[in-house]
From TrEMBL:
One of its GO terms (biological process) is regulation of DNA-templated transcription. Signal peptide: none annotated. It holds the Pfam family RelB. Coiled coil: none annotated. It comes from Waltera intestinalis. It comes from the Bacteria. This is Type II toxin-antitoxin system RelB/DinJ family antitoxin. InterPro entries: Arc_rbn_hlx_hlx, RelB/DinJ.
């Protein structure tokens, strides 16, 4: 049997329970999942997934001043004139994906 070393990590109890629930459904013990993550760190030579700040929520009309609203309209008109347009269906898919709307 291969030698092993211990890894200790402090996580919130709720996070641990939620992760264990998902891993149990997949049939993967927590220690195997941690090992898989560490192997990917080594193979990828970094964190094995994209890390970025979440997108900001779309602007709400009520939160804009008249000046800010006018500026946003101008940006939109520039995009239309430049041909940077998307179908309503494509926007709906993105809004659902990114913001749960």
């Amino acid at each position: 049997m291969a030698r092993t070393a211990n890894v200790f990590a402090r996580v919130e109890p709720e996070l641990k329970e939620q992760a264990e629930s998902v891993l149990d459904q997949l049939g993967i013990p927590m220690s195997n999942a941690v090992g898989m993550f560490l192997r990917q760190v080594v193979l990828q030579k970094g964190i094995p997934f994209e890390m970025k700040l979440p997108r900001t929520a779309p602007l709400a009309y009520g939160s804009l001043t008249k000046e800010k609203f006018d500026k946003e309209i101008e940006k939109g008109m520039s995009d239309v004139k430049a041909g940077r347009v998307y179908s309503a269906d494509a926007i709906e898919v993105e809004m659902k994906r990114d913001f749960g709307i």
